[in-house]
Amino acid sequence: ERELFQQFVTAESVSADGHPVELAGNIGKPEDVENVLANGGDGIGLFRTEFLYMDRQELPTEEEQFVAYKTVLVNMGNKPTVVRTLDIGGDKELPYLTLSHEMNPFLGLRAVRLCLDQQDIFRTQLRALLRASTYGNLKIMFPMIATLDEFRQAKSLLQEEQEKLLAEGIEVARDIEIGMMVEVPSAALIADLFAKEADFLSIGTNDLIQYTLAADRMNEKVSYLYQPFHPAILRLVKMVIDAAHANGKWVGMCGEMAGDEIAVPILLALGLDEFSMSASSILRTRGQISKLSKQEMAQHLERILTFSTSAEVEQYMEKLLNLNN
Ligand code: PEP
Ligand code: MG
């Protein structure tokens, strides 16, 4: 299979009818960049920075983080690189950060909530990112945003750290795009309001599905409810894409759905700009998109959006893609 897709390493990410998209990779460590590039990634759509904080005994210093971010940016050679700020809490714990026990960790003090609560940790990361910003094409996004207020607070802390650095005579890139993940239903529902204040949106379907269907993404007993093609999810994804575009912003997806063979044609038809996935899915997706007509898929999309269940959508797509024969 690998050989079959080799031709797509240097190919453009474009549909059969000439619609261009960006196919990016998700990474957790600077070393992962190599694999994204070897698989022809157009960029990094999600750098899960929490991995820099895990498997160690203390917080990573500003300098350690600076080196990690700089390494990624330099190796990406000016290709767009979206770094997500710390997304800890929920299922991901740190041994040196003693957080109080919570009844519902996934609904608790995690991600941007934790960063706004423990601002010293957040500011250290923001400084490291800003210092690294001159080495490549950095974009920063905040995870788990549920309210406009959180997004504004996170942006203003970033602004404060930027001003401090400039006052210290340290260079910072001027054109850093600041975006957010849309992975909480409240954010998806007011994506139009966020799109006015964010430079881009990135849909995190792993959490968006879990929160929309109220089904723990790790719990096998309710995995039957974890439905990427539930009409509620398709409607939310469409809302977010339309809201971003209505405000002249680009929109990506960095959840597993972005690399799913059945989802890709639907996302293409919806107008998703950037698909970010594990490196190993990039070439298959580029090959798939090269054979799809966005216009044709837009007609199928009209049908798909009338379906009432996830199963109907999946059956329709499987037939269309000639799967299961
Ligand atoms: C998501 O929630 O879709 C996502 C990309 O983030 P993570 O899987 O790290 O929660
Ligand atoms: Mg998430």
UniProtKB/TrEMBL annotation:
<comment type="function">
    <text>General (non sugar-specific) component of the phosphoenolpyruvate-dependent sugar phosphotransferase system (sugar PTS). This major carbohydrate active-transport system catalyzes the phosphorylation of incoming sugar substrates concomitantly with their translocation across the cell membrane. Enzyme I transfers the phosphoryl group from phosphoenolpyruvate (PEP) to the phosphoryl carrier protein (HPr).</text>
</comment>
<keyword id="KW-0808">Transferase</keyword>
<keyword id="KW-0479">Metal-binding</keyword>
<keyword id="KW-0963">Cytoplasm</keyword>
<comment type="similarity">
    <text>Belongs to the PEP-utilizing enzyme family.</text>
</comment>
<feature type="domain" description="PEP-utilising enzyme C-terminal">
    <location>
        <begin position="5"/>
        <end position="292"/>
    </location>
</feature>
<keyword id="KW-0460">Magnesium</keyword>
<protein>
    <recommendedName>
        <fullName>Phosphoenolpyruvate-protein phosphotransferase</fullName>
        <ecNumber>2.7.3.9</ecNumber>
    </recommendedName>
</protein>
<keyword id="KW-0418">Kinase</keyword>
<keyword id="KW-0598">Phosphotransferase system</keyword>
<keyword id="KW-0813">Transport</keyword>
<keyword id="KW-0762">Sugar transport</keyword>
<dbReference type="GO" id="GO:0008965">
    <property type="term" value="F:phosphoenolpyruvate-protein phosphotransferase activity"/>
</dbReference>
